[in-house]
Design goal:
Blueprint: E1 2-6, H1 10-22, E2 26-30, E3 47-51, E4 53-54, E5 57-58, H2 59-68, E6 75-79, H3 84-92, E7 97-100, H4 105-119, E8 127-129, E9 132-135, E10 140-143, E11 146-147, H5 152-163, E12 169-170, H6 171-177, H7 187-201, E13 206-209, E14 213-216
Helix pairs in contact: 5-7
């Protein structure tokens, strides 16, 4: 999973970057509101960790702008503003959770995993799709209790499909998720990874909408 971290404090940002990477996330770290994308989409990231107090603007303005454009990406706010009014304002503006500084990093990671579970409509750390189970923190997938031998890209592809909750996930989104910090994979490479994944989990578990994208069946 790819996380967009927007935090101007060097010490905190560096600590969160390391902790997220240890928890099997890939991370893009930005320090200014002006560097944030004008709009997010499913190809950009799985979730955003957003500081409200940025040196060149308000994180709250970013949040409102994204939600006004119907961005559904989970957003976790982090801020020193701990009053009830501030928390209610952030949540009413569209935040999925709100964490007041200073906080313990394990709590932030737990809250992040919680909003990701809600986004994927999953109740626990093991995501279940019929006989198929995914353990995102361990980068493991199991089929009928048997651990599958997936490459890192095959697992990330499966995870991106799982986040779609049975809806079609576009080719561009999948290609970008497999290379979140660089150029998206080309169509040929994506097709190769999809073919290999289908062979390992069963072709019937990945549906196709020709020319558009793919979805994960719960069988």
């Amino acid at each position: 999973m790819h996380i967009l971290l927007i935090e101007d404090d060097l010490s905190l940002g560096s600590a969160l970057l390391g902790a997220l990477q240890l928890d099997a996330f890939s991370v893009q770290w930005l320090r200014r509101a002006g560097d944030a994308p004008r709009c997010l989409d499913d190809a950009s990231c799985s979730a955003v960790i957003l500081d409200l107090g940025l040196p060149d603007g308000s994180g709250l303005d970013l949040l409102r702008r994204w939600r006004a454009r119907d961005v559904r990406t989970p957003i976790l706010l982090i801020t020193v503003q701990g009053s009830l009014d501030a928390r209610l304002t952030g949540l009413d503006a569209g935040a999925d959770d709100y964490l007041v500084k200073p906080f313990e990093t394990p709590e932030l990671l737990a809250r992040l995993r919680a909003v990701l579970r809600r986004q994927a409509a999953q109740a626990g750390d093991t995501w279940r799709f019929g006989a198929l189970s995914l353990l995102p923190r361990q980068s493991l997938a199991q089929l009928e209790g048997r651990t599958l031998d997936l490459t890192p890209r095959e697992f990330q592809l499966l995870l991106a499909l799982a986040e779609g909750r049975g809806e079609v996930v576009g080719k561009r989104t999948l290609a970008q998720r497999l290379e979140p910090l660089g150029e998206a994979l080309d169509t040929t490479a994506l097709q190769v990874h999809l073919s290999n994944l289908r062979r390992k989990i069963g072709a019937q578990r990945i549906g196709t909408l020709r020319g558009v994208g793919y979805w994960l069946e719960s069988l």
